[in-house]
Design goal:
CATH class: Alpha Beta
CATH superfamily: Spore Coat Polysaccharide Biosynthesis Protein SpsA, Chain A
Distance between the termini: 71 Å
Shape: globular
Number of domains: 1
CATH topology: Spore Coat Polysaccharide Biosynthesis Protein SpsA, Chain A
Largest sheet: 6 strands, mixed
Number of helices: 13
Helix content: 25-40%
Strand order of the largest sheet: 4-3-5-10-7-11
């Protein structure tokens, strides 16, 4: 049973979430029908058909609290200060950026985002298509706020490969139509909806010649041994959040990554076709070394910025048995160990900026919406009106 506080969160958040859900389904009906008709994976990028009216309304709604790209400092609601390291990206890129959810799961069952009836966010389950539904709502709303393009890419499984191997080829197919393609796993949420990707690119040191950026994985120690490192002992990069920038180098990189398990170029890569951590380990084991043309070709994002979530270390801690580094996911939260938290994280990501919007609106219109009752006189003092009443009474009462 949800407690009162969580019910308040849901009640306020559901308005924006369900409004986005309605337009998402209707705006993407053509794309979804194409998916159902064609069992093969997409051979070309599908043009976005999102409703422009909703985009404009959402963008306008959040406009007053969007963080200025050129402001090198950002302070979150808790007062924590973050700084950008450069100002290369100083103008909104808009639809030059694509945010895409790539998944083999189709969220079209009861109470999921692409079902033809309705959706109840309160009872949305955080597994399978429910988890994908929650991700689409969070990522799509973020895209609308900042004017980015958005797609849900339903991919087909690759024979004899874990389903996460859909990532390299999907990125390769999509990237020619965009300057940047940003993809996130279904258990990833954006906690600060007001912070644009362009500002984060500046913070993370992404350059005009950068091909790809990924966060350092959390350092996992199992039975005293490091589990999240490659064969050279270097921490792997996590593919739950990927920023790819279009270039000849990037396209070549993605093709080699997709083809890695054939071992035509990378001997031993076939091991990772179905062995954990699949395409993620293959990238860290081979690709990042092969394409390290400059220190900025492959950018490693700080784990505390784009991996983990608040409390992950304490939650996972089993001293001497299993431990995880304390990465809080300041700007991209990846709930790898507790997908049950994703739903509440999505609600808070909406509620925090909505609360700020309401605060500003209330103060802006304080003269009409804020009534301040005048202070009352002390009880020991008699008001003028009371004096008049007492005087009238004295005139009618008998004396002596």
């Amino acid at each position: 049973m949800l407690n009162a506080q969580r019910r308040h969160y849901i009640g306020l958040a559901v308005f924006i979430v369900l409004l986005s859900t309605f337009f998402l389904f209707h705006g993407y009906s053509t794309t979804y029908e194409t998916v159902l008709r064609d069992p093969c994976r997409y051979s070309a990028p599908i043009k976005s058909s999102a409703q422009p009216d909703l985009r404009a309304a959402v963008s306008s709604l959040f406009n007053s609290i969007k963080h200025d790209i050129t402001n090198t400092e950002y302070r979150d609601a808790s007062g924590k200060l973050f700084k950008a390291n450069q100002t290369i990206w100083n103008k909104p890129l808009g639809k030059k950026i694509l945010i895409v959810d790539i998944d083999t799961r189709v969220p079209n069952q009861d109470n999921q985002i692409l079902n033809t009836e309705t959706i109840n966010f309160e009872t949305l389950e955080m597994n399978g298509g429910g988890l994908v539904s929650n991700a689409i709502m969070n990522h799509y709303l973020y895209a609308m706020i900042h004017g980015y393009d958005f797609k849900y890419y339903q991919a087909q499984s690759i024979k004899d490969h874990h389903d996460t191997w859909i990532l390299p080829h999907a990125l390769r197919e999509l990237i020619p139509d965009y300057q940047f393609v940003v993809t996130m796993d279904a258990d990833v949420t954006i906690p600060h909806m007001e912070v644009p990707l362009e500002w984060l690119f500046n913070r993370w040191g992404i350059q005009p010649h950068t091909s790809i950026a990924l966060p350092w994985d959390t350092l996992e120690v199992r039975d005293g041994k490091k589990a999240s490192v490659d064969s050279k002992g270097m921490l792997v990069l996590n593919t739950g959040f990927v920023v790819a920038q279009d270039s000849a180098t990037t396209r070549d990189m993605l093709e080699k990554w997709h083809d890695c398990t054939s071992e035509s170029r990378y001997a031993g890569c076939g091991t990772w076709a179905e062995t954990w951590s699949h395409e993620q380990r293959a990238f860290s084991e081979y690709i990042r070394y092969d394409y390290n043309n400059t220190p900025e070709t492959v950018v490693s994002i700080d784990c505390d910025d784009a991996m983990g979530y608040p409390g992950i270390a304490a939650e996972a801690a089993r001293p001497g048995e299993y431990e995880v580094s304390d990465c809080s996911g300041n700007f991209v939260r990846h709930y790898t160990l507790n997908k049950g938290q994703v739903k509440e994280a999505g609600m808070l990501s909406v509620m925090n900026p909505l609360a700020e919007l309401l605060r500003k609106q209330l103060l802006k219109n304080k003269n009409t919406v804020w009534y301040q009752e005048p202070e009352k006189a002390e009880q020991s003092e008699t008001s003028d009106r009371e004096k008049v009443v007492l005087s009238d009474i004295d005139g009618v009462l008998p004396t002596g």
